[in-house]
Structure to design on (95 residues):
């Protein structure tokens, strides 16, 4: 098996960069929806917890949310790094 052959897609450089930045924005939107769902999870657990025996359930939910927030934070750092690659990019529109 040899090296893969990469062909020019024919997309203008400025359009490719725009597409990458748009994909970053879409990923951030998806992550915000996940964070919102995690907040709703905490609210539901707290609302349904009415007795002291529910403390382990609340702690488990908190741990779950904490892990998800940590994962999202790491993804946000990666997205920020990807975005910074294009922070000084000056693309001229091709005529």
């Amino acid at each position: 098996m040899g090296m893969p052959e990469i062909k020019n897609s024919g997309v203008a450089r400025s359009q490719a960069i725009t597409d990458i930045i748009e994909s970053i924005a879409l990923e951030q939107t998806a992550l915000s929806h996940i964070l919102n769902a995690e907040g709703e999870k905490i609210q539901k657990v707290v609302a349904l917890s009415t007795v002291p025996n529910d403390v382990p359930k609340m702690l488990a939910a908190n741990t779950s949310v904490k892990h998800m927030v940590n994962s999202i934070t790491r993804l946000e750092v990666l997205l920020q790094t990807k975005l910074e690659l294009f922070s000084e990019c000056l693309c001229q529109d091709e005529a």
Q: What stands out?
A: The two ends are 40 Å apart (CA to CA). Residues 13-48 form the longest helix (36 residues).
